[in-house]
Amino acid sequence: MSDYRENLPELPSIDEISIELPAVSEYCPASRLPDLFKAFDSDTLPVIDIRGKLVGIISEYDLATILPEWSFDRESYLHEQEVSSLMTKEVWAETKNTNISELLSKVNKMHTRVVPIVEKDRTYTGAAITRSSIVNYLTQFVKPRSLGGLATPLGVYITDGKHQAGAGNLGLFLTGLSLGAIIFAVQLVSYMILGAADVQSIDSQYLPLILIGQILLFLFLLRLTPLVKIHAAEHKTINAIEKGMPLSVETVKAQPKEHLRCGTNLMALILGIQLIIIIYASYLTSISPLLQFIYLIIGFSFVFSYWRRGGMLIQKYFTTVKPPEKYILSGIKAGEEILRKNKEDTNPNEPSLLTKIWNIGIIQIITGFIIVNNILGLIQEFLFKAI
């Protein structure tokens, strides 16, 4: 039977998976340990002698073993304990040039939370490997912890925040163009209806009705585009991956077309808040402050309690539609690509905030949205002047 380590990708250096962790002196009073654990955000610390060499390791558990008897002693203040009397002297330590593959394979035998990194002469380097860092590193090869995605005119786009898969940046840009065109169409229809009704100015009491009408028109126009089918394929693919199911056409088809983390849910929250505020400004400014307060409490409580449920309903009936097989295949292709990139990435560091924002697609979508609105606005202005 072959060693599983033969199949591991190129592994990181020990510096990439280690953290800075101060040590404590073997002569440190044990009563100071709780403050040190808290200050260094670790319940286990390396112990060094006056030459800086590693001589042991001290943990909260070590301290806890003597605390009951020590703390209830009437003269406990006279019997200060030193770390050297409590520490574990047999310490698992590694050197800077340790074999990472061997280290990762021994995580199941790692009964201490911290493995100090030392020089060959046992001098502590100030860095250590934590069990949680190794566990986190290894689990990333199982599957991405969190996935997001978008529907684009070029197919399904999926990201784990660190990598892109599927339609790519051009697809995200085209999504911005598409959404911008739909919103422009909604605004144009609203303008034409108000113009036909010879409405010169909009009374505030009609603002809630106009907002609701624009939302419904946007959802109706969006449902006429292929984006809603691609959106459903994206959700089905991500649902399959997160459930640990194989990415076959039959399996992906069987998944729900709604997803709890979909941006539609956030849109429902924002629109709900906006509607509550507009209704208040349009109809309720003249009533008593007590009734205004009651309305706002009830309104916002309702929105914050049911926004996810509202978003799921919007997904179900408007923003996702049962996708044909070609869009399922697009989702599977993107899903397999993101899993492959995640598997091949041996860098344990989290992506920067800018990288996450870029990979989410916000910048590309907003860019496309702004460009199409400006272009269509100029065309509209030209046509109205010509008329």
Question: Mind explaining what this structure looks like?
Answer:
- The protein has 15 helices and 10 strands.
- It is an alpha+beta fold and 387 residues long.
- The chain has 2 domains: 4-139, CBS-domain (Roll); 148-257 and 320-386, no CATH class.
- A 4-stranded mixed β-sheet has the order 1-7-6-5. Strands 2-3-4 form a 3-stranded mixed β-sheet. The chain has a 3-stranded antiparallel β-sheet with strand order 8-9-10, with helices on both faces.
- Strand 2, helix 2 (33-39) and strand 3 form a beta-alpha-beta unit.
- Helix 7 (168-196) packs across helix 8 (207-223) and helix 9 crosses helix 13 (325-344).
- The longest helix is centred in the C-terminal third of the chain and has 31 residues, at 289-319.
Break the fold down into its secondary structure elements and pairings.
Layout: H1 14-17, E1 19-20, E2 24-25, H2 33-39, E3 44-48, E4 54-59, H3 60-64, H4 67-71, E5 94-95, H5 100-105, E6 114-118, E7 124-130, H6 131-139, E8 148-152, E9 155-159, E10 164-166, H7 168-196, H8 207-223, H9 227-242, H10 249-253, H11 263-283, H12 289-319, H13 325-344, H14 353-360, H15 362-386
Parallel strand pairs: 2-3, 5-6
Antiparallel strand pairs: 1-7, 3-4, 6-7, 8-9, 9-10
Helix pairs in contact: 7-8, 7-15, 8-11, 9-13, 11-12
